Amino acid sequence: MKHNPHIISCSMGYDLCPSDPNTGQRTSNAPLSKLPNNLVALEAEIQAAVASGVVIVFSAGNGSVSFPGMMPEVISAGGAFVDQNGDTRASDYASAFTSRVYSGRNVPDFRGLVGLRPNADFIMLPIPPGCEIDKENSPHDQTTGKIAFHSTGDACSTRSTTSQNEVTDAMVAGYHAPLPADRPAFFFHLGDLVYNIAEAFQFYEPSQDL
């Protein structure tokens, strides 16, 4: 707090289900109804920070019954998955639960984009080749050391649709590449999308397949 922050965001937490002190593995899936003594000081620090005007965000957990994410004073961040059809559902990788420590407290408060079990892959941002995530967490999706994406500038033409059709055909072909690593992970659009004089044949029809 010595830097006088306005917002504190933490992606961590303590699982409030009984666990083996030696291995850290759960011994029961029944959540605790009382906060352990070793976490009371942290609870007090968070309450004091919020009382001073700091906004605090904690993760809801990755399948855990997470503290401090369950505290009513904090904003609890969970996860949602959006499929290729645009349908949204809660991620089965991220936590969602009702706290037994804080009566009536439902977690999370909002959801960000998260993949599904077992690896929670969704959109992987560029990472340095050979880093820990690159070597250990990415091989299962066949994208180790590489990321493919599409990027275009101004997407509308007032003269002809020829160039747009050529770009559209190339982009659609990219989504059907034989190797998953060659398929674009996201589309990054730069520039104007539609000009005020554009008509359907100038933008929508050439681009509708995307």
What is the overall number of helices?
4
Strand content: 15-25%
Which shape, going by the Cα principal axes? elongated
Name the structural class: alpha/beta
Q: If you average the pLDDT, what whole number results?
A: 82
Strands, total number: 11
Low-confidence stretches: none
Distance between the termini: 47 Å
Largest sheet: 5 strands, mixed
Count of separate structural domains: 2
Radius of gyration, whole Å: 23 Å
Helix content: 10-25%
* H-E string: EEHEEEEEEEHEHEH
Explain how this protein is built.
The chain has 210 residues and is an alpha/beta fold. The protein has four helices and eleven strands, in the order ββαβββββββαβαβα. Strands 1, 3, 5, 6 and 9 form a five-stranded mixed beta sheet that branches. A hairpin with a 7-residue loop joins strand 7 (97-98) and strand 8. It starts with 6 loop residues before the first strand and ends with a helix. 15% of the residues are buried. The model has no long low-confidence stretch (mean pLDDT 82).
